[in-house]
Amino acid sequence: MKLLxxxxxxxxxxxxxxxxxxxxERKTTERERPAQKEQAPDxxxxxxxxxxxxxxxxxxxxxxxxxxxxxxxCATCHKYETEERLVGPGYLNLTNRRSPEWIMNMxxxxxxxxxxxPIARKMLEExxxxxxxxxxxxxxxxxxxxxxxxIDEEHAGVRDQGVL
Amino acid sequence: xxxxxxxxxxSILFAIAILSCRPQGPGVSATGDAASKVYVPPGEHDEFYxxxxxxxxxxxxxxxxxxxxTFKILPVFxxxxxxxxxxxxxxxxxxxxSHGFIPWDDLHHIAISTTDGVHDARWAFANANNTPRVARIxxxxxxxxxxxxxxxxxxxxxxxxxxxxxEYVVAGTRFSVPYGEDADVDVPISTYKxxxxxxxTFISVDQESGEMDIAFQIDAPPFAYDLARGGKKVSxxxxxxxxxxxxxxxxxxxxxxxQRDKDFIMAINWRKAEEYARQGRGEIxxxxxxxxxxxxxxxxxxxxxxxxxxxxxxTELKDIMYFIPCPKSPHGCxxxxxxxxxxxxxxxxxxxxxxxxxxxxEAIENEDFEGDVNGMPILNYESVLYGEVQRPGxxxxxxxxxxxxxxxTTMFVSSEVxxxxxxxxxxxxxxxTYYSVGxxxxxxxxxxxxxxKYLVAYNKITKDRYLPTGPELCHSAQLFDISNGRLELLLxxxxxxxxxxxxxxxxxxxxxxxxxxxxxxxxxxxxxxxxPAQARVERDGKTVRVYMxxxxxxFRPDNIEGVFVGDTVYFHVTNLEQEWDIPHGFAIKxxxxxxxxxxxGETATLKWLPDRVGIxxxxxxxxxxxxxxxxxxxxxxxPAGSDVPLTFSTGE
Lengths: 164, 652
Hints:
By secondary structure, chain A is mostly helical. Helix content of chain A is 53%, strand content 0%. Chain B is mainly beta.
């Protein structure tokens, strides 16, 4: 009899596990919450740009193209020749504060940067408006960088101090 | 002993364990499993797009199948204050006609473009039933791209059916009417038989741009043209139209148009007609109609009035028009996937005649005629008939096909869908609908390659199927599983407006081709504002144009002064966003029209006539960011003739 009870227990356990297993296998559709990563920030930011080759002297064609893109897609929120914040921070001293890689990643990969890059996240806490993805190509982002370098050269007297 | 009890117990418990964990058998799944068959888990997509006519709301619903969820109501023939369609300066011309601006119509049928008879889903076409028009919807933007008015027509019901390579869209008139100059059309109604005509319009479609144009019209007898289908494959050169009121009555049609035993399915050899049109063997007649096209880059619709059409006379061009007798006021005339069978649904008949295309050609070649309509041959019924589906139900309306040799016909009076074998003409299954089914639809079910998995019945009466909402109820749709050789009801779902016809196609055809935003670089709107440096206000006499940008989350300019009562103000708002799903809205207090929703990269214009002195706020109506509530501004309106200078600013 004891043996039978024992067998029953085992079988019932099996039964429960078998059915329970089915439960746990059920597809979970809730999104995994991203872990709040508290690692040392990468001064290059997060995104496709790992290394930027800077040219000397500045390329006037790139500056012109960068300014044209900024005039249409960025200038409603960023002032050019000052650090003063409008919606986002002004451009002045941008290349002295951040690495060229970080600047381009912020433009090209803004949603991930705002979620995961500690500096970008801190800025979002101040500005409260997420910088929009303006669908800018890598080449265009490089032109924008040249325009930022030009602003610093002209109005800060020094540029590229953020280079790593 | 103990051992045997143990073994028996073990076996029983194992059996229980196995049975309770096994997937449920097919016997149970017909009803018990229905929910999981239509369940699309959060984050996953439906298998089919279902493009559904909205009937009297003049719009089109975009629905997912099998879930039955509605994703979008896209405005076509009716104004839409939500998006500004028909209210913004850019979209008003889309609703222009020879009668001027018309804010509403009755949209009955959908045709999804095909290549070789198979859905390519480049465009959806839709008909306006009341003031005859055909619209083309771009399925990469889900916007109405073009509307063409149909002259000499009155009640564009037999439309917008297409040829198998979308060479032509047809528009057959439901009401025959007289046409021509004033003297031709100002006639007593009682002279119907002498003076009324039934125009059948063939609209050509440019294979690259989709642009429509009236290629020719055919001057058909004064019948009522109800529905139509293009042939496919073997019958690809032909088009079939159902007719009623071949009695040519002009009053109390309920009785007077139901006198004859048989009306006709009219067969048109459109290839021949096209050839005659190319040879100019018709008459150019005066006909005023509007042609409205939305430009892809400026997003501005231009309306052009056209003045003439080419009319072909089928009594002279002998070999383009034939009549097949069909019992009792046929409604649907549907062509099987192989193009061989034409199913006529006499809505007052107790049977469904199935005609054979090859027998029709044979009858034409043998001149096997039983009479004529104004000299155009009536083919012998028996010679063209493949067979009749006996006792299918009451009030057959429409037929679709599953590509596995079966046809499905809706029965309005007996409120059911009947499944029958296309070869043996025997009824296989029937399922009740709740209630009074009109059209039905199988994904690809009117094409050469149906996806015979689901069937949707669009019902006219809903009664007790949902929570009641006063005297007017939504129209219900019902989804059936037809993959198991029978009709299994899976789902009831509510619809918007009154769906008539609908089509569905695999989502994979267009899902990855969707436009996510308009490139601001490509915006050629004459009043675009490409960046804040161009944001400004200009005055020209009493016209004030505001060149405004919007981006998360402010307008530029957002303070405007020096505008007076009596001015006409145009807000040209450019959305500078270049990101998917970030439209901005614009609304201003006291505007006698609507808001506008501006898609990323687009420019839209709201016209405003300030009627009193004061400060008027404007704001963004489409939640765009955490500071959306701050996206607002003021315009100061001063008395007419005052000397307040024109100024504008942002952040000062």
